[in-house]
């Protein structure tokens, strides 16, 4: 049949819309008298057949066909066999499907000494002219023996002369329905899809093209394994015989490739296209072509002449089984390559499509995308994260951060100087990444190397070759920022201390100031408060001398000074400084959402410590506006800001609501970033909520997990690590594990004693000791420790006020009066 042009398709649409609501016999009469060309008439006829559901097994699939009530027979218009009727060696149990070629029954083998149920497919009485198509399906199935394909069990001729075939009966759900019913995540969907590809690749290897891939022909069995069904309109690749138009009409338009709709020869590429449509629907939850009230001809015209919407954009328009951000990029490219209108531009094989999916899951570059440097390096870094950190965010922070200050006027001297600085930073990034990629590629054990190990190796090798120039300082700054993005404060601190000791950047005051500013940040992160002031005092005059050039650096100096004031008892001053800095932070971090959200995070932490709980919602609103604008809901910073909502609720004595929030945050952070400092703090807040709810065993479990994580990613002496240990002691004691509580006390006491001055860690630790002594029955000692803890909390002012709320209940358990407070 000759291919149709645009005008022909418009004629098809008009003719179809005139006939679609008429009975089949009237449709045939009108078509016989239609003045249009034979091609238009035949295409309209095929579409009318499709609209009536005359595709292969377009009735309910086996898993969805309900059993007939006891004592009832199949409806007369459903099938020609009644329950109990024998065909060959099989006894019919009930009908389960009907299509344009055959009727299908659930049957069991008669007289067998084992239980074997089959799907018995019998040529329909009114489809005698299609007997050759039925025979072809039997020949195709006879070639195939694969665990992912419903196999041929037997074949023969019924007493009335009609051929039948008996196939594996698959008791399951269509792949899309199964994924919905089981809440399947992205990896589960992709794994199922690759298994389908494996089965279809086997069929192709046996020269069989399926030609009707769609969800209802892929059932997921009780074991969660996909099984490919229905080769009713399949074709042998080595069979040159033309298929009749009636067979072509039985294809499903939603999944049919353009060449199928045009009546051209079906090839392996035809199945690749249908798999692309299937993948589109599995990840986005939407059809690429069927939307709203679009008629079948309109849908087909779109298939032939338009490109589908990106699946990520389709997912973003409504409820989708997979977040749009997880689809954007690789999966968009993979789906669209599989669905290209020109068969020669699709994947060369089903195996190539499956391989690209596997590469995406392994964080390797996919063949569907171009090999740009940024993309290749991004995939390389993500491949080696091993759940440690968001290395895609690492690369983004490096590449985007380099341009995050380019907000000034394009023709000013300031902008020209910034461009030079950005070029230097980019050169440092390229040098560092080149060494990282090269050295790891040369490592025979690179598949087992973590990002942390890669970074340590790179820093060690580069540090040995550094001089004291400003270029070396740029490289140190770049490596430092990588460590920070990986939440490895200890690694960042070791690097910056080594660089300063070697005199890196010695001849350039600006380079030295950049290093000193980062040394202050690392010292603050590790609790070495006494080192923050000297470092920022040395750096700030350099930046203050030219504020137009160093607006970003002055924001960072303000953040460091606010941290210093917070640590030295000037919490209210720290909050006021951050609030004054927010307008500049919004400008200089406009293209660097990570640092902007970190600024909001710090302010919210300080406000929580100061019990400025009523003022926090306004800051949450500003932060969440940034999160929505930049799509950072699942980023480290986005999750931490959500966690702070739970902290506020804990201070407001709403532990149940806090538990719900932080449970979700911890699960999402674990799935995205794995073990990290952020997850340790999430678990700390979850443990606090569960302690408040009396869920002591649950609190003990999460705090026991959090403690070594915090020690690894923050340090054993960091305040969060010590507070987690104190919470664990309390959970162990309250859950009856006194021996465990005493061990944790003995391990933590030396670290507490080494702290330079009293603070919250000592107060929380003292309260935990009091609870342990109480649970041991040592009431006098418990009272003394309770009084000591209360005094320490009172000394903390606003920061300790929320903790003091628990003391009346504790004193009641000790049998003392409130006058002891």
From TrEMBL:
GO molecular function list: ATP binding; protein serine/threonine kinase activity
Alphabetical keyword list: ATP-binding, Kinase, Membrane, Nucleotide-binding, Serine/threonine-protein kinase, Transferase, Transmembrane, Transmembrane helix
Source organism superkingdom: Bacteria
InterPro entries linked to this entry: Kinase-like_dom_sf, Prot_kinase_dom, Ser/Thr_kinase_AS, TPR-like_helical_dom_sf
EC number, UniProt record: 2.7.11.1
Domain Protein kinase: from-to ranges: 90-364
Segments crossing the lipid bilayer: 384-407
Keyword Transferase: yes
Keyword Transport included in the entry's annotation: no
Enzyme class: transferase
PANTHER family xref list: MITOGEN-ACTIVATED PROTEIN KINASE KINASE KINASE 20-RELATED, SERINE_THREONINE-PROTEIN KINASE YBDM-RELATED
Record protein name field: Serine/threonine protein kinase
Lineage: Bacteria, Pseudomonadati, Pseudomonadota, Alphaproteobacteria, Sphingomonadales
